[in-house]
Protein backbone atom coordinates (compact mmCIF):
# COMPACT_ATOMS: atom_id res chain seq x y z
CA UNK A 1 0.00 0.00 0.00
CA UNK A 2 1.21 3.45 -0.82
CA UNK A 3 1.62 6.22 1.70
CA UNK A 4 -1.30 8.05 0.11
CA UNK A 5 -3.58 5.06 0.76
CA UNK A 6 -2.41 4.91 4.38
CA UNK A 7 -3.12 8.59 4.74
CA UNK A 8 -6.62 8.06 3.32
CA UNK A 9 -7.31 5.19 5.72
CA UNK A 10 -5.94 7.24 8.60
CA UNK A 11 -8.22 10.18 7.77
CA UNK A 12 -11.22 7.88 7.42
CA UNK A 13 -10.49 6.34 10.82
CA UNK A 14 -10.06 9.79 12.34
CA UNK A 15 -13.42 10.96 10.98
CA UNK A 16 -15.10 7.74 12.13
CA UNK A 17 -13.76 8.01 15.67
CA UNK A 18 -14.58 11.73 15.81
CA UNK A 19 -18.14 10.94 14.68
CA UNK A 20 -18.56 8.28 17.35
CA UNK A 21 -17.16 10.57 20.05
CA UNK A 22 -19.29 13.53 18.99
CA UNK A 23 -22.43 11.39 18.84
CA UNK A 24 -21.74 10.00 22.32
CA UNK A 25 -21.14 13.50 23.69
CA UNK A 26 -24.39 14.86 22.28
CA UNK A 27 -26.32 11.83 23.55
CA UNK A 28 -24.75 12.27 26.98
CA UNK A 29 -25.81 15.92 27.05
CA UNK A 30 -29.32 14.99 25.89
CA UNK A 31 -29.51 12.40 28.67
CA UNK A 32 -28.42 15.16 31.05
CA UNK A 33 -31.52 17.10 30.03
CA UNK A 34 -33.67 14.07 30.86
CA UNK A 35 -31.96 13.68 34.22
CA UNK A 36 -32.41 17.35 35.06
CA UNK A 37 -36.08 17.20 34.09
CA UNK A 38 -36.58 14.17 36.33
CA UNK A 39 -35.46 16.30 39.29
CA UNK A 40 -37.74 19.14 38.21
CA UNK A 41 -40.61 16.72 37.74
CA UNK A 42 -40.31 15.56 41.34
CA UNK A 43 -40.83 19.12 42.51
CA UNK A 44 -43.76 19.63 40.12
CA UNK A 45 -45.41 16.52 41.55
CA UNK A 46 -44.78 17.65 45.11
CA UNK A 47 -46.20 21.08 44.30
CA UNK A 48 -49.32 19.43 42.89
CA UNK A 49 -49.76 17.40 46.06
CA UNK A 50 -49.35 20.45 48.29
CA UNK A 51 -51.71 22.58 46.18
CA UNK A 52 -54.36 19.87 46.36
CA UNK A 53 -54.03 19.72 50.16
CA UNK A 54 -54.15 23.50 50.39
CA UNK A 55 -57.28 23.71 48.26
CA UNK A 56 -58.92 20.93 50.27
CA UNK A 57 -58.25 22.86 53.45
CA UNK A 58 -59.38 26.23 52.05
CA UNK A 59 -62.62 25.25 50.29
CA UNK A 60 -64.74 25.18 53.46
CA UNK A 61 -62.97 28.21 54.94
CA UNK A 62 -63.47 30.50 51.93
CA UNK A 63 -66.65 29.44 50.13
CA UNK A 64 -66.82 32.72 48.13
CA UNK A 65 -63.47 32.14 46.44
CA UNK A 66 -64.32 29.06 44.38
CA UNK A 67 -63.29 30.78 41.13
CA UNK A 68 -59.76 31.28 42.48
CA UNK A 69 -59.62 27.66 43.56
CA UNK A 70 -60.91 26.46 40.20
CA UNK A 71 -58.29 28.55 38.38
CA UNK A 72 -55.52 26.97 40.43
CA UNK A 73 -56.95 23.47 39.95
CA UNK A 74 -57.20 23.97 36.18
CA UNK A 75 -53.67 25.35 35.99
CA UNK A 76 -52.42 22.44 38.08
CA UNK A 77 -54.18 19.87 35.88
CA UNK A 78 -52.76 21.48 32.74
CA UNK A 79 -49.25 21.55 34.22
CA UNK A 80 -49.44 17.87 35.21
CA UNK A 81 -50.72 16.86 31.76
CA UNK A 82 -47.94 18.74 30.01
CA UNK A 83 -45.30 17.45 32.43
CA UNK A 84 -46.37 13.96 31.44
CA UNK A 85 -45.81 14.84 27.78
CA UNK A 86 -42.38 16.32 28.54
CA UNK A 87 -41.32 13.22 30.49
CA UNK A 88 -41.26 11.26 27.24
CA UNK A 89 -38.95 13.71 25.44
CA UNK A 90 -37.63 16.49 27.69
CA UNK A 91 -35.37 17.69 24.88
CA UNK A 92 -38.26 18.31 22.47
CA UNK A 93 -39.03 22.00 22.04
CA UNK A 94 -42.83 22.03 21.65
CA UNK A 95 -43.87 20.17 24.83
CA UNK A 96 -41.35 22.12 26.90
CA UNK A 97 -42.65 25.41 25.50
CA UNK A 98 -46.20 24.42 26.41
CA UNK A 99 -45.08 23.44 29.89
CA UNK A 100 -43.36 26.81 30.31
CA UNK A 101 -46.63 28.59 29.50
CA UNK A 102 -48.60 26.31 31.83
CA UNK A 103 -46.09 26.98 34.63
CA UNK A 104 -46.53 30.72 34.14
CA UNK A 105 -50.32 30.35 34.37
CA UNK A 106 -49.93 28.18 37.46
CA UNK A 107 -47.60 30.71 39.08
CA UNK A 108 -50.14 33.48 38.47
CA UNK A 109 -52.98 31.42 39.97
CA UNK A 110 -50.85 30.48 42.98
CA UNK A 111 -49.79 34.10 43.51
CA UNK A 112 -53.42 35.15 43.45
CA UNK A 113 -54.27 32.50 46.04
CA UNK A 114 -51.38 33.55 48.29
CA UNK A 115 -52.38 37.22 48.12
CA UNK A 116 -55.96 36.22 48.88
CA UNK A 117 -54.77 34.39 51.99
CA UNK A 118 -52.82 37.45 53.11
CA UNK A 119 -56.02 39.50 53.03
CA UNK A 120 -58.02 37.14 55.24
CA UNK A 121 -57.00 37.79 58.82
CA UNK A 122 -59.36 35.13 60.16
CA UNK A 123 -57.19 32.44 58.59
CA UNK A 124 -54.19 33.27 60.76
CA UNK A 125 -55.43 30.93 63.48
CA UNK A 126 -55.13 27.87 61.20
CA UNK A 127 -51.62 26.63 61.90
CA UNK A 128 -51.94 23.78 59.40
CA UNK A 129 -52.64 26.28 56.65
CA UNK A 130 -49.47 28.24 57.34
CA UNK A 131 -47.43 25.05 57.61
CA UNK A 132 -48.71 24.05 54.16
CA UNK A 133 -47.89 27.48 52.79
CA UNK A 134 -44.36 27.32 54.19
CA UNK A 135 -43.88 23.86 52.71
CA UNK A 136 -45.22 25.08 49.38
CA UNK A 137 -42.82 28.04 49.41
CA UNK A 138 -39.93 25.66 50.08
CA UNK A 139 -40.98 23.40 47.20
CA UNK A 140 -41.26 26.45 44.94
CA UNK A 141 -37.68 27.46 45.79
CA UNK A 142 -36.48 23.91 45.14
CA UNK A 143 -38.42 23.82 41.87
CA UNK A 144 -36.83 27.09 40.85
CA UNK A 145 -33.36 25.65 41.49
CA UNK A 146 -34.22 22.44 39.59
CA UNK A 147 -35.53 24.58 36.72
CA UNK A 148 -32.22 26.43 36.65
CA UNK A 149 -30.32 23.12 36.45
CA UNK A 150 -32.61 21.99 33.63
CA UNK A 151 -31.98 25.23 31.74
CA UNK A 152 -28.22 24.82 32.20
CA UNK A 153 -28.40 21.27 30.81
CA UNK A 154 -30.38 22.58 27.84
CA UNK A 155 -27.82 25.33 27.29
CA UNK A 156 -24.92 22.87 27.26
CA UNK A 157 -26.75 20.60 24.83
CA UNK A 158 -27.69 23.46 22.51
CA UNK A 159 -24.14 24.76 22.57
CA UNK A 160 -22.78 21.32 21.61
CA UNK A 161 -25.33 20.86 18.83
CA UNK A 162 -24.59 24.23 17.23
CA UNK A 163 -20.78 24.03 17.31
CA UNK A 164 -18.90 23.13 14.17
CA UNK A 165 -18.19 20.33 13.21
CA UNK A 166 -20.71 18.65 15.53
CA UNK A 167 -23.45 20.63 13.76
CA UNK A 168 -22.92 18.43 10.71
CA UNK A 169 -23.46 15.31 12.80
CA UNK A 170 -26.46 16.88 14.54
CA UNK A 171 -28.22 17.46 11.25
CA UNK A 172 -27.46 13.90 10.11
CA UNK A 173 -28.93 12.31 13.24
CA UNK A 174 -31.75 14.77 13.82
CA UNK A 175 -30.43 16.44 16.96
CA UNK A 176 -32.40 19.66 17.17
CA UNK A 177 -32.26 22.55 19.59
CA UNK A 178 -33.86 21.97 22.96
CA UNK A 179 -35.92 24.61 24.75
CA UNK A 180 -35.41 25.88 28.25
CA UNK A 181 -38.15 26.56 30.75
From TrEMBL:
Protein origin, superkingdom: Bacteria
Membrane topology: Single-pass membrane protein
Entry keyword set: Membrane, Transmembrane, Transmembrane helix
Compartments it resides in: Membrane
Gene3D superfamilies noted in UniProt: LemA-like domain (1.20.1440.20)
Family: Belongs to the LemA family.
The name this protein goes by in its record: LemA family protein
Organism of origin: Roseateles koreensis
Amino acid sequence: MSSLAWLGWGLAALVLFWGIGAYNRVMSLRNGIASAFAQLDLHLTERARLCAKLLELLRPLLPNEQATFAALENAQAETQTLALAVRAKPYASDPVASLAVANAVHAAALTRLMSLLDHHAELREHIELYELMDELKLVERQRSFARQLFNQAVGLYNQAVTQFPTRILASLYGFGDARSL
